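Note to self: keep these together.
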Amino acid sequence: MSTDDARARVGGGRSTALAAFVGGLREYARTPVLLALFVFLPAYLIGGFTRLVPSTTTPLDVPGGGTQAVEMAALYAVLMVPLVGALVGALAGVFLIQAARDADARLVVAGARPVSVLLARFGLLAVVGALVAAVSVATAATIYVPERPLIVGVAALLAALTYGLLGVLAGLVVDRLAGVYLALFGTMMDLFLVQNPLADPPEYARLLPGHVPVELAVDAGFSTDVALSVAGEGAAYLLAVGAVTALALYRTMRVS
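Structure:
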């Protein structure tokens, strides 16, 4: 293959990825339910739940900050940020694969490179995750301003992307309704119950996708001393889930 042919293929792959990405954004814009899911649901859940929490304080062991007495509303304002990120990310992953699976296969049959299509879909999940993280941190700040709000946002983004990819995997094997139930119960069980900093977490808690986002959010919420190694663990977990998801999607797009 000549250099010009190789460049043409690379340019074609980029244009395919960009076209699929822009098409996905337009699809979101034309679906008010999805816009409500990405923007209004995080604000509603965080704002509503934290205002129902009793006005009491509780001792909290902050990694890097020792044991502190924190307001319950402040704690759950921070804790809800990665939880909402994971929930909306998982739902977005389910909806994304259910809506785009057939279209992606047709693109590949028409000559598009599977890698370009994968990049477009993962890019859409990244946009959703960033939007949800921004809305969640902004809403939480109306109740309590975290010590390191940017890192709390990173925790929400990690949760949204990781669970978004898991939602894509779920959407490959179950229908939309079952995927929604898995997203709801899976994220609640992981981030709200198993990873709850007020409870004694079981040994397997560190193996679940919600461990790093919750630890990172709580650490950044109540301490300025945040261990960057925690974020590294989350990035490694995300890459592993991303590799598995990419392989599964590639197999569904492969042309015989």
